[in-house]
Amino acid sequence: MDFSTIIETLTSWVLSIGGQVNDLPGTVAFGLGLFTWFAVEQVLRRIVSGMRWVILLGVLAGLGLSAPYLLGLMFDRGGEPPTIEAPTG
Q: 20 to 30 Å CA-CA from 9: which of 23, 44, 67, 72?
């Protein structure tokens, strides 16, 4: 299922509920609107969270950075530590 199909399905669902809201009591309509908003927000949050990792991996691949190179940068200390001589005198 692609992103546009999900958005289209959610939009049609919200619009179909919106068409029936005028016939409901105020409290029920408010609760239904609150639930609809919460459900749509949670679905979009999960989709965007997954897309964040896809974008990050795409950027790394686009820059030509590989996992061994990145791990070497993160965990390699850069060779021997410099020696510091105590002043004599």
A: 23
At residue 89 the predicted structure's pLDDT band, cuts being 50, 70 and 90, is low
Could you report how far apart the first and last alpha carbons of the chain are, in Å?
77
- The answer to whether 8 touches 16, Cβ cutoff 8 Å, is no
Radius of gyration of the chain (CA): 27
Please give the structure tokens belonging to residue 37: 């908003």
Count of H-run helices and E-run strands, the chain: 3, 0
Q: Which two tokens stand for residue 80?
A: 């021997």
Compute CA distances 29 → 10, 41, 43, 54, 71, whole Å.
Answer: 18, 18, 21, 38, 53
- Cα distance between residue 73 and residue 66, in whole Å: 11
